[in-house]
Amino acid sequence: MPRRSIERPARTSGGLIDMKTGKPAEKQPLPALCERIRFFRERAGMEQKALAKRIGVTSNAVSNWENGRGRPDVNLLPDISAALGITLYDLYDIGDPSARCTPGEEQFLSRYRQLSAGHRMAVDRIVDTLLQVQDAESCPPIRKLTRYQKSLAAGVGDPTEFDGEGEPIYLYSSREVDRADCVFTVNGDSMEPKFRDGDMVLVSRIPDAPDLQRGEIGAFIVGNETYIKVYGKNALESLNPDYRPMRFHDAETVYLIGRVGGILDPSQVASPEDVEKYRLLHPDGEPF
User: Fold this and answer.
1) In the chain, what is the straight-line distance between the N-terminal and C-terminal CA atoms, in Å?
2) Residues 34-38: what's their mean pLDDT?
3) Are the C-beta atoms of 31 and 68 separated by less than 8 Å?
4) Which of 181, 149, 151 is nearest to 166 (CA)?
5) Of 254, 256, 160, nearest to 207 (Cα)?
6) What's the pTM?
7) Are the C-beta atoms of residues 71 and 65 closer than 8 Å to each other?
8) Does 7 have pLDDT greater than 50?
9) Which option is the CATH number for 142-273: 3.40.50.1820, 3.40.50.300, 3.30.70.1530, 2.10.109.10?
10) In the chain, what are the domain boundaries?
């Protein structure tokens, strides 16, 4: 019985036969990624072997990519882009969103390019300042109070000169800080255990009527010294029982500085960086 033969079409340049149709297989287009690897490699004047060495693969791997017989692992794409001196946006032939400008930005750039070098420098400085201000606006709210160098229970000299002896202190805003006007340092143990030696206390000034109520704690000037005491009946009292009350009739003069609001936590003192931001937003300062 004669052997049956299968007619085979002549091979084409591709050399592949579609077994379903018996016709030469149509040449499949290369994936865009493969084409662009080849394009950028050739543009860079680089051999496949050189590219392979830079990214740590074999030259056969690069050849397979460029011929569509495989694709690079996604983890290699950043290395491929770096080796070819391009971005991932270039490799995938897509626009870089960060590089796009709005019509307004395009107009600004067009006008900026028309400026002289000196005027461009002036614009650059303005932009730098605005960026600094924008950064400063994100800073936590800060209050500028007055810190008096003379400790409570230490001499201050003439009480009429009291207002001129302070220096600014910058504190992060809080309920207690916002109610205060100045800061004093406690000296001594007469108000222990609530207030200890070295504590900084927040004081609200009372410039008009002495509206401090009995039992409240205030800052006072007695004679030639300043004190933190409890306002009692005709006397200033200490929390430490070892100290006797200070009777008003025994003192030369008694002045109320203000109401003591509480102890200042060191964490409430603004950092130098935030103080600089505050000063940038308040170049003329604020009244104490």
Assistant:
1) 118
2) 89
3) yes
4) 149
5) 256
6) 0.52
7) yes
8) no
9) 2.10.109.10
10) 32-92, 101-136, 142-273
